[in-house]
Task: inverse folding
């Protein structure tokens, strides 16, 4: 049974870079036709797709965040990561990592981690 | 403001049938399939419907989805108290995904 777990600092200062890691257990991130993604949700608001990395290593990003986002994978650790630069209070949210099989939707999710941007 | 438009709230009594709409455009719903997610309070979203009308294993057949043109709908029949949650639609738009703003379903 594949499980995803987010980790990283819960507090980031404005203008700094937010860095999160998703550790995958029960399956390899480098096998199968899966998209490994980051999705966030500000408190009391809806979901926002940040971006994804395919098993081949190719990436896609939300155009509204593209200039600040990098998603990468470390297959030796079976992890993928998110870096979001120049953060502001508007980036405060619960960040989820998730897995999708092709375009059939995100069927596996991490529990989410709250990141607060504040000085 | 979300790319896909959902009503902010919906409600029904136990046993009733409720529907939640999701409106998009030709670049997202009009060109791609729609997925629906259920989010219970304090938990991660759960995939409820994929490819417009397919249910993942374990999702009751009380939940059904449909799509027509640039709109989609989620229907819940035989409403139960445990269905009280937030519901989100999602679709691809070019190479990225867009979500609806979510609909809070209240079971009266």
Result:
């Amino acid at each position: 049974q594949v499980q995803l777990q987010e980790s990283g600092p819960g507090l980031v200062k404005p203008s700094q870079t937010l860095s999160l890691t998703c550790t995958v257990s029960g399956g390899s991130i480098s096998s199968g036709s899966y998209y490994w993604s980051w999705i966030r949700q500000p408190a009391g608001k809806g979901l926002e797709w940040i971006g994804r990395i395919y098993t081949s290593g190719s990436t896609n990003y939300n155009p509204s965040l593209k200039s600040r986002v990098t998603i990468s994978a470390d297959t030796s650790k079976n992890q993928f990561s998110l870096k979001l630069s120049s953060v502001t209070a508007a980036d405060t949210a619960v960040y989820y990592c998730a897995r999708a099989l092709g375009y059939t939707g995100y069927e596996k999710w991490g529990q989410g981690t709250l990141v607060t941007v504040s000085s | 403001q979300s790319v896909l438009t959902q009503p902010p709230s919906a409600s029904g009594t136990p046993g009733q049938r409720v529907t939640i709409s999701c409106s998009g455009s030709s670049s997202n719903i009009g060109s791609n399939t729609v997925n629906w997610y259920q989010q219970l309070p304090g938990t991660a979203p759960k995939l409820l419907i994929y490819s417009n009308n397919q249910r993942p294993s374990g999702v009751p057949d009380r939940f059904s989805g449909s799509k027509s043109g640039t709109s989609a709908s989620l229907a819940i029949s035989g409403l139960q108290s445990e269905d009280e949650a937030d519901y989100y639609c999602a679709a691809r738009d070019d190479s990225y995904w867009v979500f609806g703003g979510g609909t809070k379903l209240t079971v009266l």
